[in-house]
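Protein modeling request. Please complete all fields; requests missing the sequence field cannot be processed.
Requester role: graduate student
Desired output: 3D structure, token encoding
Chains: 1
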Amino acid sequence: MKSLDLDSLLGNVYSEATFHDSELLSLNVQFARGAAEFMFRIPIEVADGGDMVYRTGTLAVTGLLFLAMDPPAAPPAEWREAALWITSDGAFPDPRVKTGIKLPDGLPSDAFCNYLFASNTNAFIIVAATGATFEWSLDKDGLT
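Delivered output (144 residues):
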């Protein structure tokens, strides 16, 4: 499997943009197309007052091969009706990642597999696919 640095998909428009401390707002899986869209609020800078400034965008995954999520390991009060607070991501498998999720055998060599860790659910999301792109939203002023 190949490696994919998710932050590299964010481009260079916002030098401080990163998936670390992002918020996963929604996930749309299109099984018949083998695709998934992850809508995020991505931190792009820290304002003068210390507050994070976010912009929305979509991580589009194509050639979807595998998608799995741990059940929440945190109390519902910490995640119900809230975005998932993504505090870690990287290539999977990773010996530091403690999850019961196992990859299926036979994934193609041109595939990548990455994890997202949501702190407010204390759970992992694992995705394997052959393609991924990121597009910033075109909302009114681009900031949320």
